[in-house]
Amino acid sequence: MSTPIEIVFKNMDHSEFVEQRVHKEAEKLDRFFDRTGSIRVVIEAANKTHRKGDLYQVGIHMKVPPSGSLDVNRAKPQSHAHEDVYVAIRDAFAAARRLLQDHSRKLGGHVKTHEAPLHGRVIRLFPEQGYGFVDASDGREIYFHQNAVAGDAFNQLEQGSEVRIVVAEGEGEHGPQASTIVPVGKHHIVE
């Protein structure tokens, strides 16, 4: 690993073994993001008690392009498992790996986005004949039959009702046809 690493020990003595573990964990970071500019690791014995061992806090500051930084900084030790400095180091670097993965995805444009489901409002309803039309969010007018309405809610629909739509493959006699219509009710769809 060519990334410079600075290791700071607070409230504890310097340890070659701990330093080696930090270097080993830092090398794993290259698998997730190989352009880290520098890494600063602060290992601190958080409290001195005679009843239990010291709890360790591990903070990691990483410089990453473009001109930014990522920090793993837990104000308090996560659990009594952090009485073991190696566990505290492992957990901090696991959090650093997650941050680097997210950062790498953002830089590469691979951030998950969830598209709003196709939805619309009932614009015409023919209850006696058992069908209606929805003005869909994609601009189409979509025909639906009462059998496509989920939960036997056809009789509760009225003009202006907001619905989610699943369009059937191919077109029906009246153009695009819904295979499923789900009334939205109080839960509005956000685009």
Give me some keywords for this one:
191 residues; alpha+beta; Double Stranded RNA Binding Domain; OB fold (Dihydrolipoamide Acetyltransferase, E2P); 2 domains; five-stranded antiparallel beta sheet; 9 strands
Description:
The protein is of the alpha+beta class and 191 residues long. The protein folds into 2 domains: 5-108, Ribosome hibernation promotion factor-like (Double Stranded RNA Binding Domain); 119-183, OB fold (Dihydrolipoamide Acetyltransferase, E2P) (Beta Barrel), CATH 2.40.50. Helices cover 20% and strands 35% of the residues. It has 2 helices and 9 strands. It has a 5-stranded antiparallel β-sheet with strand order 7-6-5-8-9, with no helix packed on it. 20% of the residues are buried. This is RaiA ribosome-associated inhibitor A.
Quick synopsis:
With 191 residues, the protein is of the alpha+beta class. It contains two helices and nine strands.
Strand sequence of the main sheet, in spatial order?
7-6-5-8-9
Radius of gyration: 29 Å
Q: What would the CATH topology of the largest domain be?
A: Double Stranded RNA Binding Domain
Q: Could you report the average pLDDT, rounded to the nearest whole number?
A: 82
Helix-strand pattern = EHEEEHEEEEE
What's the CATH first level of the largest domain? Alpha Beta
- Contiguous runs where pLDDT drops below 50 for at least 5 residues: none
Largest sheet: 5 strands, antiparallel
Structural class: alpha+beta
Helix content: 10-25%
H/I helix tally: 2
Number of domains: 2
Structure summary, number of beta strands: 9
Q: Report, as a whole number of angstroms, the end-to-end distance.
A: 44 Å
Q: What gross morphology would you assign?
A: elongated
Bin the strand percentage. Answer: 35-45%
